Input
Amino acid sequence: MDELRDKYLGAVASASDEAALEEVRLAALGKKGEIALRMRELGTMPPDQRMATAPALNALRDEVAAAVAARKAALQDAALDERLRAEWLDVSLPPRPRRAGTIHPITQVTDEVTQIFAALGYAVAEGPQVEDDWHNFDALNIAPEHPARQEHDTFYMARSEGDNRPPHVLRTHTSPVQIRAMMGQGAPLRVICPGRVFRADYDQTHSPMFHQVEGLAIDRAITMANLKWTLEEFLKAFFEVPTVDLRFRASHFPFTEPSAEVDIRCSWEGGTLKLGEGDSWLEILGSGMVHPKVLTAGGIDPTEWQGFAFGMGIDRLAMLKYGIPDLRAFFESDLRWLRHYGFGALEVPTLAGGV
Ligand code: DAH
Output
């Protein structure tokens, strides 16, 4: 009797869930359970032995049944506790604030640039990111053997086998949109062309995909003086400073003649960049007078029309204006970064509100 008690009370205590407990109950008290079988044996016993055994066996049966019931209640309580813990809900909490999305700095700066040039009478022109090599190079006076083709670290698209046409490229700059705008709209013309460009280059200041904005103004008597004024006005408005000091450095681009790289006066005092003062110069764009061959490629007569063009990096402008140190972070989609550097969806640059 003691052996049975120890065996089943032990099994009940260590049953870890209701299914295991039910197995213990069946093994002890079920129709073919060990205790039930013993009770059935009572009938075959001599009366005096039965009288001695029956009460103890009954007591054992009741004890095991009570232990099973108690264990079952305990397991159910534990299961309920566990469920309450898992499904816990603090109904007194305020509703979860809707996470507002933010405007990416690249989008914001593109809007700012567009807004400023729109006020100067420029329309936005667009072109494809997968460009043919005539628009990306030839039409811009970059001949097949021109070193700029290598310098641009061009991504070439695959051609199917047996197709010997020159491969398309991921455009290496926004300048091909100049050609498309000239061909599509003719002269006179004032456009800016913001968009994605691609070069096989990757480090802290280079990303294989980045953004440029191209500017193009064509009219009968446009000169370098107009270019200089336009860039000054743009940079003052963009950086929100009363004056800028620009340095035009003679340079070379195949699509402009003469060509100039433009530097802006700045200081790095105390590790922060200040524009318009100081003794340092920061290169911010390339520009020049549109080459006659480029006008011709765009279907515009260079004996009648002339114009200026410029190209600058939008990502670079964003880094300078908003103090963003690493270009690569722009494209990592880190939510913490986006929330920190992003702009409110309603902070749209406007003529009245400024950029
Ligand atoms: N396309 C040049 C580049 O990606 C930038 C540039 C320079 C554009 C001079 C122009 C220009 O329109 O006149 O490096």
Remarks:
- Residues 2-86 form one domain.
- The radius of gyration is 40 Å.
